[in-house]
Amino acid sequence: MATPIKTPGRVAAPGQGGVGDSPLRPDGTLKVAGEFAYSSDLWMDGMLWGATLRSPHPRARIVSIDIGPALATAGVHAVLTHEDVPGNKMFGLDETEDQPVLAIGEVRHQGEPIALVAADHPEIARRAMEKIAIEWEVLEPITDPRAVVADPERLKVQERGGITRHQPVRVGDVDAARAQAEVVVSGEYEVGIQDQAFLGPESGLAVPTEDGGLDMYVSTQWIHNDLMQIAPCLGLAEEQIHMTMAGVGGAFGGREDLSMQIHAGMLALHTGKPVKMSYNRYESFFGHVHRHPAQMRYEYGATKDGKLVYADVEIILDGGAYTSSTQNVTGNAASLGVGPYEIPNIKIDAWGVFTNNPPCGAMRGFGAVQACFAYESMMDKLAAACGITPVQARQRNAVSQGSKLATGQVITAPAPLAEMLARAEAMPLPPAADTTDIRNLPGGASQTTHGEGVVRGVGYGVGIKNICFSEGFDDYSTARVRLEVIGGEATALVHTAAAEVGQGLVTLKAQIARTELGIQRVTIAPADNTIDSAGSSSASRQSYMTGGAVKTASEAVRAELLAMARRKLGHRMDDRGADDLSVVGGKVVSRSAGVLASVEEVLGEDVIEETRKYHHRPTTGMDPVTGQGDSHTQLALCVHRAVVDVDVDLGLVKVVEMAAVQDVGKILNRLSLEGQIHGGSAQGLGLAVMEEIVVTGGLVRNPSFTDYLIPTILDMPPMRLDILENPDPDAPYGLRGAGEPPTLSSTPAVVAAIRDATGKALTRVPVRPEHIIA
Amino acid sequence: MDFLRPTTWEDALAAKAGQPDALPVQGGTDVMVEINFDLHRPAALLDLNPVRELAEWDVVDGRLRVGAGVPYVRLIEELGDRLPGLAQASRTVGSPQIRNRGTVGGNLGAASPAGDSHPPLIAGDAEIEVASAARGVRMIPATEFYTGVKRNALEPDELIRAFWTDPAPGPQYFSKIGTRNAMVIAVCSFAIALHPGRRRVGTGVGSAAPTPRRATAAEDFLSAELDWEGRGPLSISAAKEFGELVKRAASPIDDVRGTADYRRHALSVMARRTLTWAWNDYRDGAKAGKEAS
Question: Residue A600 burial (CB < 10 Å; 0-12/13-18/19+)?
């Protein structure tokens, strides 16, 4: 079978850059020029188009399905239901396997896949799909997560029940502390459903192979985890499926769960033809999980000076009908539920529950975002109650290196939170808005004010995020590095299965190979499953894990190169038996004898190839009763200061400036890093003031970019960044994962600034104009 | 689906007469989106882009006649001085790409209650020139053009040729609520136009009723209340009453973009503010005039 056109090829990374430089992305020009092949651009002659029939109801029984008229449509090659699933009929993340490949007798959320059609043309497929006749028995959806916590046995959405996970955290004696607290503050908070809003819709191509297997081109965050779920459902051995990463148009967690992969595979196996599936924007809103909405109740006690003495916390996360990542999201919400503050007595109950609301799972920040909005709102309340500033309230309780988290885990790496807060506070404030240009004002070009009703506010937010997978999971990564002379120049080929989702890993892998091998030319092989797992492009972990794997594999190649140099050049160890060779600027250099030879001369016709697996330090689970455990690999902090102008008469907001202080351990690529901080801050701003999937009775009311609003350039302000480099001794180059922390802290900072301007309580995000003028 | 591409206005009218269910398309920023989402499957598309005269504007006996195919970007650049209210509204339409393609003609054809160009057309007393092969030209006042949600006064064989309006005889403002600062559909919107010669105030209320509409009681109240001759200051109570009357002219709904209560409230604020800006401009204009003379 031929290779489809428009698949990612090998990309050569240009430029000088090693670790610490900011070389341009190898895929950057293609993306800017509109020439990069995303998964929706995949094409193969003779391919069929797949379409998915989805449930219009959040909860209903399927009395009957008639596929006859659809199948009889000219140009239709297959119409499949759950009866046609060749292998396991259920799949799911984390071995939960509670989600049907296609609905079996019942649907549990709006948009649940029911049947598949393959046809010559996408429009034929879509029309045939509409001819599938279903007789429904519509049921009352279960949509109140708090009711599920109260009565999980009665309000069971599926066999696993009403509660996905309940994770308590118990430290000290909250009741005793409550009696002694001089100041008590409490609040109830709510976070709406945020969407990842990636621009590249779910899409991919499945191509049958001559031996009965499949070649799959998919855009995902983790090839091997996809494969683990796809193969059993298709009744194939993993070895029968060759997975290649297609161009990914953003992910943000929304591609951790499968979307069209098994479906396209079923249609391809059934028809014997290549099958492409590509969702449109409307379908995409139903084609992936979202960020869990949360309902939270917090009570804090403190001394009158603002030193926290206890926290009593309840967090309810609505995961929708299937498990997805809810267990781990709930774990994060529990372990990070009070944030980066030292509190001697803690009682946290975090619940993940099943409902018939839209399915929720992974999104940038992963359970830490929701809690962060609540605990940061509480820190502002504490400050107000004690008559101290928001920065003082945070500094008086801030963790530092050696502090214990709520789980009892000691922060072993630097964590200079009090200093970071001081730095954020010390940054100069932006000048008053220039009202001669309405684009500087709330409402922007819509001209709702020329300055009337505009009040400025300033707010702070702090977030703490776990980096890498937690709770005992060994999310290793694998890298193969091959060094040889190609066209007279030493060239490294770096191969991993890691997903480039836009974050810049392809750039970084080349930087690391250049630094470790001392050469210029590096080629990045397409990600596929001919190499072992790289783990997920999630949890801000790829610089750490795949970066670590490329580093160790490159080090092994370098060691072999130097050994080869000694063999071929007859160079000896020095008298102490130490190796005085290194590779610098493409030359093998001896400390004592200077340049010995070029890398090309040493290699000649030889090829050096090494594969290494990289593991982070082991973590433990959380105790099911007390939540205690060393559950996290690495912890990362970000501090935001937001400055807003609010039109208090109309409830419209202009974020004037965001300043961020983030400790990244080591700056590997400043350009990419700043992009991550800007982007994470923008996503947090979106949650603060506009982004929400609005749901009524289990039905989504705004599945489009017309009504699901994400920030534009007129909403996202300029940023001041202060990036610290306090290295983590456990991590490669001392780095600290950076993609998620700013997503946490920007939301509460923006809301705190709006509160500062308006005096309103604002206990729910996104903040709507109605809330501000209420 | 047939695709009709007449190159002259006469051929376009003939095509529409021959196939009245053909959907006219200009910039395509609305029509093509709906087709992509399969919300409509018209029997035919009538592409008016090749009809070059639709993309022209002209001054006829002191009035502006603006072709239905003039894109927003040209309204802003070429007519911003003479139609400031419409230009302000045009600036709020979508993104630069949308403003390069989208047209007032298309906005009128779609007749969405949220269309940004409607309130300034109503406030400016615009008339819509429509035509058919059988009956020729007829002029429809903007206030009578919108007949329901996404419905207008066109007969099936008619096409929109142009809109007519006077160059602004006085200050004009447009204001729109959206929950982000650009590229947003109106939660509600408001336009005001002062007609000092007639001592009238024009208004247009958008996205707060099944159709764009004028706030007649507010206009009547204010036209009588303002000190046109002496150009005296605007009383706070008059501005407030005007806002109240604009608010009462609306009959908004709760939807995913905002609540009815918020829309009413926002309309009263926008009415008050735009009136203040317009009246201050009018007063400043008098001062500037005196200084110049």
Answer: middle
